[in-house]
Amino acid sequence: MTWHAMSDQILRMACALAIGFCAAMVAGCTAGDEELQAWMDESRRNMPVTVNKLTEPKVFAPFRYPATTEVDPFSAAKLRVGMDSPARNGARGPDMSRLREPLESYSLDAFKMVGNLKQGAMVVGLLKSDSAVHQVRVGNYIGQNFGRIVAISETEVAVRESVQDAAGDWVERDTALRLQESGK
């Protein structure tokens, strides 16, 4: 008998023993279930049932809108007045004719304040985007919403953005890029 034939025979015997062992284990695990099931049934019978009473739902009084004599906010005349307002025509909007600065191509969320520099009375903020660090000064434009830097302190860069609301009017909103502490 060759070595290869003997190893196949040993492998078959090992598989047969493993299958037999697993069958014995499964057979041994099923014994004693009756005692466990009886204990579970007794515990269910002896367990007191507590049901909390549900609170009554609140009764809401219907609200009647009494402005039947007012101008309908959805009428065509009201919408026409809103479309012709000077605010819609860009009276307070950003200057669309100015050249865009490089930092306006990034979203404001892409920047993190990592520090600042002081040169006399002038403060320069250090903002990081991707892997580059940019120096910014008060008056620089930043972000995609016509943001302009209005103040720089040791802990934050204050930005005023001009965005359009749902009606198309330009509104200003203030936000800040705060100094990010480096986790070591």
Description of the structure:
By secondary structure, this protein is of the alpha+beta class. The chain folds into two domains: 44 residues; 96 residues, SH3 type barrels, CATH 2.30.30.830. Helix content is 27%, strand content 26%. The chain is built from three helices and seven strands; from the N terminus they run H-H-H-E-E-E-E-E-E-E. The chain has a four-stranded antiparallel sheet with strand order 4-5-6-7, with no helix packed on it. It has a three-stranded antiparallel sheet with strand order 1-2-3, with no helix packed on it. Strand 5 and strand 6 form a beta hairpin. 9% of the residues are buried. About 3% of the residues have low confidence.
Please sum up the structure shown.
The chain has 184 residues and is an alpha+beta fold. It is 27% helix and 26% strand.
Task: Fill in the keyword field for this structure.
SH3 type barrels; alpha+beta; flat; 2 domains; 4-stranded antiparallel β-sheet; single chain; 184 residues
